[in-house]
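#struct-queue
[09:14] JT: dropping the first one here, sequence first, then the structure tokens:
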Amino acid sequence: MGVRRLRDGQGTLVVRGERGAVSVPLEIAASYRARTKGLLGRDAVDGAILLTPASGVHTFRMRIPIDVAYLDRRLKVIAVRTMKPGRLGLPRVRARHVLEAEAGAMSGWGVRVGGQVAVEVEGEGEGEVAGG
């Protein structure tokens, strides 16, 4: 199952891996305006932000280094990179979503290439999951 059309808002990122299921607070940036702003101007990130649709990112005008995970349409992780401020990430052809978090956070959650994540959207019923 692919991801249904998401809207700007809050949710939970669920990372399934060796540690079992890890839940992380998630901000969803689905509108052009929200995706463009992303993490710009922030000194910290509480959890992660999902940019959708997106296939690439940059860190110009960012204050902190970030982890970036590129996800395919089924929310499978196809690449994970750590980016310093002032960099341009190469777009990934198969990427449909980009997940961003503070540098080092994703390895702690178990986000790995080939891994699967899911998005639980607030306000759409308990247990309603996109992807995974």
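[09:21] JT: and here's the second one, same format:
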Amino acid sequence: MDCSHIQFCADKLNLDFVQLQRLLAKTAFWARERNIDELQIAIANSNPVVTVWDKQRLIGFARATSDGIYRAAIWDVVIDPDYQGVGLGRKLVQTVLSHPLVSKVERVYLTTTHQQSFYERIGFERNETTTMVLHNSDSSEDLARRIKEQLPVTIDN
């Protein structure tokens, strides 16, 4: 496949959220139910956001969050299946990793379910020690109550 016309973009202001929602629904079992309002919030709070385009068609996406010095996390890495296997996923991740907010941090985290070997080829290592997760699907009041029950502190509302 000739990819010379494929464009990578780090400008999240012109992101087409309808295309992003379709791409995630097509390629990511973990993101099929995401709606546009929630995607807009996630994008607003992410930097960098990198998109991959074949002319006007969104074919790839990844985003990161970072404190710029200690920790960063890469999220939602997807390439349209029609474009997989030609190096675009690798270039997408490398583009995120080269961003100034990510390139100098001590550790970059990434969570993946089935693609460990892909990320190992880029330089990521399996990490069995960072396995903690808080499923914050409860309301904020329920979470505050659970925290209050666990900690001997008073939470002011």
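[09:30] RK: nice, looked through the second one.
[09:31] RK: The two ends are 57 Å apart (CA to CA).
[09:31] JT: good to know. The CA atoms of residues 24 and 38 lie 13 Å apart.
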